[in-house]
Amino acid sequence: MTNHFVDYRNADVILIIGSNTAENHPMGMKWAMKAKEKGAQLIAVDPRVSKSASMCHVHARLRPGTDIAFINGMMNYIIENDLWFKDYVLNYTNASFLIHPDYQCEDGVFSGFTDIDGKLSYDTATWQYQMDGDVIKKDPTLQDPNCVFQILKKHVSRYDIKTVCQITGTSEDTYRKVCEMYASSGKRDKAGCVIYGMGITMHSVGTQNARALCILQLLLGNMGIPGGGVNAQRGEQNVQGSTDMAMLHGNLPGYLGMVYANKHKTLAEYIEKETPTGYWSNKPKFLISQLKAWYGDKATPENDFCYDWLPKHDGKNRSYMSLFNYMDTGEVKGFFVAGQNPSVGGPSTIQANQAMENLEWLVVYDIFEIETAAFWKRPGADPSKIKTEVFLLPAAMSFEKEGSVTNAGRWMQWRYKAVNPPGEAKSDLWMFYNLFNTIRKEYQKGGKFPDPVLNMVWDYDLPGEEEPDIAKVAKEINGYEVATGNVLSGFAKLAADGSTACGNWVLSGYWFEDKDAKVPACKRRINKDPSGMGVFPQYAFSWPANRRIAYNRCSADPAGNPWNPQKPYARWDALAGKWVIPDVPDFKATEPAPNPSDPPIPVPPEKSAVDAYIMSEDGHGRLFAVKGLSDGPLPEHYEPYESPFRNLISQQQNNPMALTFKTGLFSKIAEIGSEKYPCVAITVHLVEHYQSGATTRNCPSLAEISAHMFVNISPSLAQKIGVKNGDDVIVESVRGQITCKAAVNGVCVPLMVNGKETEVISMPYSWGFMGIATGASANDLTPSVGDPNSNIPEYKAFLCNVRKANKS
Amino acid sequence: MRKMNRRDFLKNISLGTAGLTLVATPALAGESQGKITGEKLPGKIRKVKETYSICCFCGCGCGLLLYSNEEDRLVFCEGYPDHPVNAGTICPKGNGIIEGNTVINKKRNRESNRRRVTKPLYRAPGSSKWEEKSWDWVMAEIAQRVKKTRDESFVEKDEHGVTVNRTTAMAHVGAAALDNEEIYLLHKMYRALGMLNIEHCARL
Ligand code: SF4
Questions:
Q1: Cβ–Cβ contact A5 with B under 8 A
Q2: CATH annotation of A665-804
Q3: Residue ranges of the Molybdopterin oxidoreductase domain (chain A) (predicted)?
């Protein structure tokens, strides 16, 4: 989220797309409803009448997997009708930048496409800016055919209302209403807020879906302002924190890219290749402080701070789906699972469980006996044939230990221990700490390359206590001065010479004491909102640097006057000669005085106006992405991998760069227009169940309220296959079949797509064979195809058939 | 582990809700619900301990107040009134959170949720059952397997002679249900071992 939940109430128009906020983030929806009470218009774009859709002024249905067509069409409408926010676009985005004259997008494929022995990639040379020495060439009149604005205009011009609605199945009247209503936020005194969720990301074009929303927001000047932003509602209590902490193969904590064998042989090479201009020019400070935190005294400038002790990546895809493929092929032999339930929660679970049978050992840390731990006794499996050794370690629940979690609005919040864990259950902190202590003991006897194992900083004993010293861990994450051990106030204090240690620079400051509350920032609970804009600057800690709204320089014009004087955020007070802002500036508002003991000097607005998007190398919001994406600089509609239709917009059927498995367990995909599997399916959530249901299906009242697995089908489909609400049906895909109850209630209705009636069905995926409430797992049906950038599976558009189950 | 039947469910629900009402508004409780819980209630309330927490479910990060009794069991939960996001309200999941710790039994008392795993468990190759083990035993056994798998697969230099110090024979998934400090230790441990295969549900 660039903004935060409470900030929704500052919006004039809210576009909820690919999210069922009311069901999945109920307390987020509360703030959208506050906006509604104050007169805001709410739009839901969703294939179903979700709970959220039923609370909005306009609901547009679309066929799952056609979001880019939908959003590109909105941009086309906005540009054609001259409804974009010119001052904003011209000053704060790369609209006027000139792109390489050879750039093109022809028939759905961008320039630079290469196919070397079946290995597809894009050479991005033609996606780059035209340079005049070090300076990017620009055309402030936006007329040059090679300028970003003209390229975007041409690109989206193919998405006229008629074509869009043929693809998406939306009624043209409704679509026009959505365009009109949302475009109204392009005025300088109006704020439009985009709320999205997994309905956007879980596609083979997931990243480009999100990009499309960002471009839309930039065109309308909705980024960096209160009541605006692109707000990804994260599904889990700490999925933001676990992402920040880099539990993803390609990262080190704090979004530092992993070190790769082919391009980062030495620290110097890493720094040379990975240190861009803009804010990331500080990257060496972040990495070296991290190495210092990890290897302590052993890390010295002479030995490159033990850089060679980091494992170097082999460049292969090691994302979630690939790991299961590596279990299938036998490369992965040992598997740890902590607070996740892949036997139910990942894609293609029939095949994933099969792949897990190849493991030599499996360690599961959990509070309940979840399906993953019990995979060897799942229905249909023969335990005597499964050789995997399984360890199930009893974990503590959130309130049986203490620690911090980070919500979707980037707020790091501390929570306390209320009761002891039952029996011998332990906190994960205790388990990880002691497991590694035990491993280190093994390596004291010798072993392969024991240096990083034995020398990793790992001294969190708390005298007299069984639990490790969590405050010490927190301090290390936050960062401290090596010589004094003093906690750092933030990442601005980090150095590249080994004098500071910091485990995760983006979180720096979260453990620094608040001057009023006298506790670390993440523990403070000062319920004060001095600006009245819902900022609450002293409640918890919002990374980075306690910033609540990202890119907040953009809430004012280049001269520092708020676009909307009624809702000022950043404002240059010309009389006083300084910035006034209720938040932490996301720009250079002051600079250190020549004499360090003097107060910092205010920086006038002209200076920050030229790089208002400070994290972007060119300082501007990117309508056109010159780097960072493997599948194109602009979002282009492709059909989902499993689709009833040929692509109407180009000959290119699918995202050519999507992650797929050509052979093996995970290669099964239905053919285009399959007659056997005619329904478009999506998976969804229910308010009572959390993810795979591992916890909530073991909580009696939640299991009772929502006890049965079901599939939502339309009344017309129900009639066709002869079932009523509550009857048992079989849902099948090319990967397997499940039996569950039919819910026939009008949540799903068929859409008319390019003249063909298309059934849409939806299934919650929160059931499995363990727990109090058991039921079939929807993921037995989902495909192992993923977005090329994020590698997220395509759960939100796949093909199924539904038929009546014979009563046994 | 014990399965609940539907009658148990319903009992728990109705009792649970009554309990909520009583603790939240003790003055009214006597009039409307007195028969259900009896007169001891004020004493019960006096003895509960209040703890601030953050909900363990969705990304809203709602503030909670959890109440535990003298037997170290959670008895009640409500939204934290001064939390900017939820301002005292919570959804059904947040409300159900304490059932991970305790449930209401037939005698209408709170008892531990017996579905919790309370001892380290081990399942041997080809076995059809769990065996209870001590912490020392599981830690030592896992450590030996980690070492064996790592050492057998460890690559110090790749085919181009670059120092890589890695293993790809072990993998990890999961983290979004853990605290930041826990994840940090986990990440450090895995990188120290040379692991590349580290993933979690942000990808899902
Ligand atoms: S109480 Fe409900 S809305 Fe709040 S964090 Fe928990 S699950 Fe989310």
A1: yes
A2: 2.40.40.20
A3: 2-436
